[in-house]
Amino acid sequence: MDLDALKPGLTGRAELTVGEEHTAPRVGSGLVHVLATPVVINLFEAAALDAMDQYLPAGYQSLGTVLNVRHIAATPVGMRVRAIAEVVKIEGRTVFLKVKAEDEKELIGDGLHERVVVNVEKFSQRVARKLAKL
Questions:
Q1: Which H or E element spans position 127?
Q2: Residue 2 to residues 25, 30, 49, 64, 95: CA-CA distances in angstroms?
Q3: What is the pLDDT of residues 11-34, one digit of tens each?
Q4: Is 98 within 8 Å of 85 (Cβ atoms)?
Q5: What pairs with residue 36 in β-bridges?
Q6: How many CA atoms lie within 13 A of 115 on its CB side?
Q7: CA angle, 58 as apex, 132 and 114 as ends, to 5°?
Q8: What CA–CA distance (Å, rounded) separates 115 from 19?
Q9: How would residue 130 be classed by pLDDT, with cut points 50, 70 and 90?
Q10: What is the pLDDT of residue 134?
Q11: Most Cβ neighbours (<10 Å): which of 13, 39, 69, 94?
């Protein structure tokens, strides 16, 4: 597997306008109708995929393995949010990224994210074997 196309400095983005379906009560993570932390995490993952996946060899994908983030400011329904992920380091099959999210007013979250690159066919076979053991 050749990951030479993946380089520090690559960036990806993910955006959304906060709707009621993105709020804490709707996803089960709180009572206030603001952007839910699990949705912020999803944005971080989507931005990381945007930064990386186009540079992976055919038949490979990345999987999130570590996410250490802060969600530090509330974002109300109707406000736009943008997440950015930047590749900062690559060690073997593991890719390390910085992530941050901002709404129209301020930084709402940041952190570090790790993803591992896997062969899709081999990974799918491993999952099937695990299921077969049930």
A1: helix 120-132
A2: 43, 43, 18, 19, 13
A3: 999 999 999 999 999 999 999 999
A4: yes
A5: none
A6: 27
A7: 75
A8: 28
A9: very high
A10: 84
A11: 39
Residue in 111, 97, 110, 105 with CA at minimum distance from that of residue 18: 105
Question: Following DSSP, what letter does each residue of 33-90 receive, concatenated?
Answer: SBB-HHHHHHHHHHHHHHHHGGGSPTTEEEEEEEEEEEE-S--BTT-EEEEEEEEEEE
- The structure tokens 């993105």 sit at 22
Encode pLDDT of 54-96 as tens digits: 999 999 999 999 999 999 999 999 999 999 999 999 999 999 9
Is-above-0.90 flag for pTM? yes
Contact 8, 47 (CB under 8 A): no
Parallel/antiparallel/unpaired status of strands 80-91 and 94-103:
antiparallel
Residue 2: per-residue pLDDT: 86
| Structural domains of the chain ordered from first start | 11-132 (3.10.129.10)
Rounded to 5 degrees, what are φ and ψ at 58?
-55, 140
